[in-house]
Amino acid sequence: MDGDLVIRRASRDDLNSIADLVLRLKRLNEEFDPLYTIRADAPEVIKSYIESSFDNDKIIMLVAEYSGRVVGFLRAEIRSRLFYEPPFEGLITDLYVLPAYRRMKVGGALIDKLIELLKKQGIYLVSAEFPPMNKIAVEFYENMGFKPLLYRFFKKVE
Amino acid sequence: MKSNSTDQWYDLSLKIHRSYGGKIEVIPKVPIKSLQDFSILYTPGVAQPSRVISRDPDQSFLLTSRWNMIAVVTDGTRVLGLGDIGPEASYPVMEGKALLFKYLGGVDAIPLPIRARDPDTFIDIVKSIEPAFGGINLEDIESPKCFYILEKLRESLEIPIWHDDQQGTATAILAGLINALKLVGKKLSEVVIAFIGAGASNIATANLVIKAGAKPGNIIMVDSKGILYHEREDIDSLMFSNRWKYDLAIKTNSEQRKGGIPEALKGADVVIAASRPGPGIIKKEWIRAMNDDPIVFALANPVPEIWPWEAKEAGARIIATGRSDFPNQINNSLVFPSVFRGVLSVRAKTISDDMALEAAYSLARFAENKGLREDYIVPRMDELDTYIQVAVDVALKAIDTGVARVKKSKKDLYDEVVRLIRSAKSKLDALMNMGLIQ
Predict the structure, then answer these.
(1) Average pLDDT score over residue span A42-56
(2) What does the pLDDT read at residue A2?
(3) Which residue of B has its CA nearest to A25?
(4) Which residues of B touch A135 (CB under 8 A)?
(5) Rg (CA), chain B
(6) Interatomic CA distance for residues B432 and B13, integer angstroms
(7) B97 carries an active-site annotation
(8) What pLDDT does B4 receive?
């Protein structure tokens, strides 16, 4: 692939590209379980989800750009941990890289940049959430040195 | 008329299968003259070769039939065009394959349909039968399971493993493609190739033609949902459900072409269709929209995606099908007997992609030496010398690339291959002449 990889903070100009990537990510989850069925209004909801994140200083959004095109996206929320040390974590809620740009360490570069920004705020814990059936994500985070620390169980009640 | 004649084959075949009760049997290959011979061939004498093998299991290749014995293994999940008909129903096909292995390659093959739908169970079973065989031929296993099974078994077995629906077909197609391109004066590294269908054979063929020098970006693959491109909506789910197709979606189609079969064929130099029975899957006007001198491989059975005469009328320069009643039959029967003859004769540990490529080049050379024509791009199945040549070339490649356990000179290899292939036929002829087989 020609061109240079740039990792930078997302700006409002990126909104449409980011919304497209997030929709792809959520659609992928749809494969895993009926409880991940995409709502009909998901495209609009995603846009407002991203838009409101811009105004929130507890949220970090990064994009990966290749030759001027947004090809990857990361969104993380800074959360308090009431009972444990360290007291804050940066939780990656969304991470997606376009297929043609995978296996080029784009995801890793986004996470490295996030860690760098978190450290500047004195935050030394980073986490990620995703469906457990996503074996590729499991492998990716394991390779990045993450380990599972929390289960979240779901049950639909009729 | 066509369907009539196919129906006649069906009737006749059922009759033959019923009257012979199958097609193969086991016959001893050592002389037995008196009761005393059993003390040598069986107990107590047989304990001695067993002792020797127990000290050195590799001796099993010298002291037993293992060196020339393979298993034709299937789970019966994708048999011919019949689909998931189960292991018992696949038996006639496996037995037919075993017959061709012996008759065309001098290879002893055991039909082995197994009840194992789960891929890991299948893999465990094949691993556990390894001691009995010199090689494994996988057959008629549904995609994408077949890719996973082949990949895992290639990693773990010390004997060659081959999935004929992938590798055999890919090798035969590549051989035909090499010669077709020679006839139209085009280079593999420059042509645009449209693949219609993304099942086991076309995925394997795309990978093999890339190995042979085609540019991945110049390949356009079409599956049931249309042209594969790396931002197609279902691409992420493909990453989980069929990562072999996913890999091709990422590296092919550099122009990100979208659409269906007509869009894929537009301006293409070659179309390789292995999709579903025609006619009418590929339309004449789509062939007209291809580049000059179109090469059309319409390989669906029993009816090709487009009839050869229709393709010709639409301007196709070279046409191949999977059928023996049309010229240019692209058929894995041209490949598997000789590939296994070659690897068994040098006790190869594997059948590498380089060896598959060599088989394709060798097949192509055979036809070229006979004189290429638009209606003769690959050898015909009845040209028995082709099996000898390809077997020797594959064996030599195994020796060159260090996967052969036994090294032999080209002359010795040639003599052995000729002897083994001819003896299979001579023995059958003799039995037929004596009226023991009629």
Answers:
(1) 95
(2) 52
(3) B236
(4) 240
(5) 22
(6) 19
(7) yes
(8) 57
